[in-house]
Design a protein that fits this description.
This protein is an all-alpha fold and 410 residues long. It has helices spanning 2-7, 9-12, 18-47, 52-77, 82-106, 111-134, 136-139, 145-174, 176-196, 210-226, 228-260, 264-287, 293-313, 317-345, 351-364, 366-380, 382-401, 404-407. The protein has two domains: 2-199, Growth Hormone, Chain: A; 219-407, Up-down Bundle (Growth Hormone, Chain: A). Helix content is 85%, strand content 0%. The radius of gyration is 21 Å and the shape is globular. The model has no long low-confidence stretch (mean pLDDT 89). Its main location: membrane. InterPro entries: Bacilysin_exporter_BacE_put (IPR022324), MFS (IPR011701), MFS_dom (IPR020846), MFS_trans_sf (IPR036259).
Length: 410
């Protein structure tokens, strides 16, 4: 009864579907473990004698593995059962973390082992990410896609808030091995939930050869090219993500140091983004069906850009916190509508390929973006840089709405 009052009947409706309920539970637990590991792993690198530069190298290695196989991952996700892809990648990642724990306890762990783990994690992610997004319409009816994706967003934000706190407790109580051991167990919990799921079978497809893989990938690109709303949004968000990632990773710490004064304000900013995202996911899930999807999604993008503009001029930490909440909530509006629209309008048999191209577009320019925003901050300062990032996002949102295929998407 309390849950229904807080979340609303519409948001909880997807959880009536047993396959989605198991999927959501398993992924929520696994995400929590990921966030715990995100606290423990940097400390582990430093404990092994690593430097800040090596922390950056490990992150770059993970991203490289992810990008390297992402398009192939999309093709395979459309060819073999998506649940199987999720089970295998969770098992591999769980085994990798368990191996690190065993080496750590045995005293044989080196940085080389972590380099290998990060690379293999990135390679697994290239298959896991398109599979986890494209399996949703296989386990919930189309009318429930918006609340289902709102629940997924809620789980991610909840893990983002609770995971670091839990990670700190586990590291403080039992050390790095306990925190990483917890992460390994969450992968097993995710696998158990996936194995209990029943997914309706997709139509059989011929066994692909190397040539067929390229043909399938080409078909995916042609499908995107025929859908104006798809290719325009993928292109626009290749740049939108650059400005947001640069702002949060590079400019937020500088804003706190130069303008807000209190180092704790950085934690408040990030927590506020997550809190705004949580509230937005709850509200969207309660609404259910969204009309004028293109207009609503891009309005969310524009609002998040305006929030960045406001942050550049925020006179007080309380104002910055409110604007950070607006930014997080507005981005979730776009994210939930986008996910639900792709899952509803893209044919199920091509969903993995479309998601892999979408994700590749989102990641491709990020390294250059970090460098560019860092250059702006060095030469112009934090306030002009935030104004540029926020203004660029608003401009990109307006550009998207000029496209009929986006503006008229319902």
């Amino acid at each position: 009864m309390i849950l229904r009052r807080v979340f609303g009947d519409q948001l909880l409706e997807p959880l009536r579907e047993r396959p989605f309920r198991l999927f959501w539970l398993g992924q929520t637990v696994s995400l929590l473990g990921d966030r715990v590991a995100a606290v423990a792993l940097p400390f582990l690198v430093l404990e092994l004698g690593g430097s800040a530069a090596q922390l950056g190298q490990l992150s770059a290695l993970y991203s490289a593995g992810q990008v390297l196989l992402l398009l192939l991952g999309g093709v395979l996700v459309d060819r073999i059962p998506r649940r199987n892809v999720l089970v295998v990648t969770d098992l591999v990642r769980g085994a990798l973390v368990a191996g690190v724990v065993a080496l750590l306890l045995g005293g044989g762990l080196t940085l080389a082992h972590l380099y290998a783990m990060y690379l293999l994690f990135g390679l697994c992610s290239a298959f896991f990410m398109p599979a986890t997004a494209s399996i949703v319409p296989e386990i919930v009816p189309k009318p429930l896609l918006v609340p289902a994706n709102a629940l997924r967003s809620f789980a991610g934000e909840f893990a983002g808030i609770a995971g670091p706190a839990l990670g700190g407790l586990l590291v403080g109580f039992g050390g790095l091995a306990l925190a990483l051991g917890f992460d390994a167990l969450t992968f097993l919990a995710g696998v158990a939930c996936l194995l209990l799921m029943r997914v309706r079978p997709r139509p059989a497809t011929p066994t692909p050869g190397r040539t067929r893989h390229w043909q399938d990938l080409g078909e995916g690109f042609r499908l995107i090219a025929r859908s104006q709303w798809l290719w325009v949004t993928i292109l626009i968000f290749a740049f939108v993500n650059v400005f947001f990632a640069g702002a949060t990773s590079v400019l937020f710490p500088l804003l706190v140091k130069e303008r807000l004064g209190n180092p704790q304000a950085l934690g408040w900013l990030f927590s506020s983004v997550a809190a705004g995202s949580l509230l937005s996911a709850l509200l969207l899930g309660r609404l259910g069906k969204v009309t004028r999807r293109g207009l609503a999604a891009y309005a969310g993008v524009a609002a998040s850009g305006l929030a960045l503009l406001g942050l550049a001029l925020a006179p007080h930490p309380a104002v910055a916190v409110a604007l950070a909440m607006l930014m997080g909530g507005s981005l979730v509006v776009f994210g939930v509508i986008w996910e639900s629209t792709v899952q509803e309008l893209v044919p199920l048999e091509a969903l993995g390929r479309v998601y892999s191209v979408d994700m590749l577009g989102s990641f491709a320019l990020l390294p250059l973006g970090f460098l560019a925003v860092g250059w702006l901050a060095t030469h112009l300062g934090v306030t002009p840089s935030l104004l540029i990032c926020g203004g660029a996002v608003v401009l990109l949102a307006g550009t998207g709405l000029l496209v009929p295929g986006v503006r008229n998407l319902r």
